[in-house]
From TrEMBL:
Residues 57-454 form the Mannosylglycerate hydrolase MGH1-like glycoside hydrolase domain. This is Mannosylglycerate hydrolase MGH1-like glycoside hydrolase domain-containing protein. It holds the Pfam family MGH1-like_GH. Residues 468-477 have a biased composition (Low complexity). The lineage of its organism: Bacteria, Bacillati, Actinomycetota, Actinomycetes, Kitasatosporales. One of its GO terms (biological process) is protein N-linked glycosylation. Residues 479-488 have a biased composition (Basic and acidic residues). It comes from Streptomyces bungoensis.
Amino acid sequence: MDRTAQLTARLPERATAYDPPAAPPAPASSASLHARAARVLTANWTGASTVPSRSLYPHQWSWDSAFIAIGLRHVSPLRAQTELETLLAAQWGDGRVPHIVFNPSVPLDAYFPSPDFWRSSTAGRAAGAPRTVQTSGIVQPPVHALAAWLVHRADPGLSRARGFLARVYPRLAAWHRYLLHRRDLGGGGLVSVVHPWEQGMDNSPCWDVPLARVTPAPARSFRRADLDHGAAGDRPTDLDYGRYVRLAADYRDSGYAEGGAFAVEDPAFNALLIASEHALARIAGELGAPATARHARAQRLTAALVDRLWDAERGMFLCRDLRGGEGGGGSGVLVPELGVSGLVPLLLPGLPREVVTALVRTLRGPHFGLGGRTRLVPSYDLLGAAFDPHRYWRGPAWFNTGWLLERGLRLHGVTAAADTLREAVLDLAGATGFAEYVDPFTGEACGTTGFGWTAALALDLLHRPPGTSVSSTGTGTFDSRDMGGDRR
């Protein structure tokens, strides 16, 4: 019996199937998009988790699974819960949640870096890597507590019957402890990433200066499987990939200990941690545990984010290169590149009003062009020297960042812009066959299609009608239905 069947067998009868609450009839086009998105998630489902793409990404990815669970909750809350439980079952002893959990039935040459590169069970032994599953040794943005809370709210009865929150809360708390205690490499209270893959926006020009200090691994030392499934012009260059491999190999050879050549405080990574701290407070409250300290921590992190990464002149948050500056030590230097990561903190409730106003102005202005030159938010400055509308994270628009910014706009009362962005996400997701990312000008599909989080987040937006407000009560990251109200 597979894991999903075992979980289902232990549930009360009412939990073995999900009948969504009654809702007004959806327009035919919305119903069709809903059905198509659900089919993508079904096709990518492995029985215990969802792959981002059957061809290009045949394993389980950390932040992909969080976003996928957010959409799956509208189709099957049980599968959404299982998605997160499967990922968290691969957590290391030191608390880190690895960015890839490898499927042992997938051939080694289907994806690189493969399990034999990471050597998690041996190189990660001192850090408590699991022995029963192979994983990578780096992490990805901590969207998981936010996803867990939203999944719980989709069917609280099922969640309580299965003890879902009680099981995942200790693991989520350990994950946040790891980040806050082991990754505050700059000493200013924020979390650092030690590899571009950890931040999730792998090939962003924001990493060009920090990466320039890294000697690339020889091209003959690895084989890129991604080029078997995607156009070379859409993917990172061989030079960049060589640097990624060098950083990952050095980190592995250190026993996955922090302190390497790359350390960057990123605004999106930290904003998602803050949103998830607020969500952990909500989860704690649901479980009858104190929540005040977590809200206070989220407020302190928000203050640190503004203090260390806000650039008032540019009207957005910037990355801080901790190895930059004279001697490569001290507090580092801000990287002057404008990436979509610097807009993502818009989803936080505790930002000063002047910061929110500036972020919205930047989002709509010439650098990102939302509502003017572009329908979806580009991943990099339209006016930047490194802008490329097709190459991975160097200009194309992504659906997960569109979803995050839609929530931020809605939270801060910029409802018309949020509705316009919602419509663009849904239109382009459907028109491109749920593409991985798109040209921000033309909407042309890039990367692979049938992409997991594109389908999942389209589903989520279909369940949030235009004009919906987002409450800042308690968290500022959830709409009224997520706070326990109407679940239409």
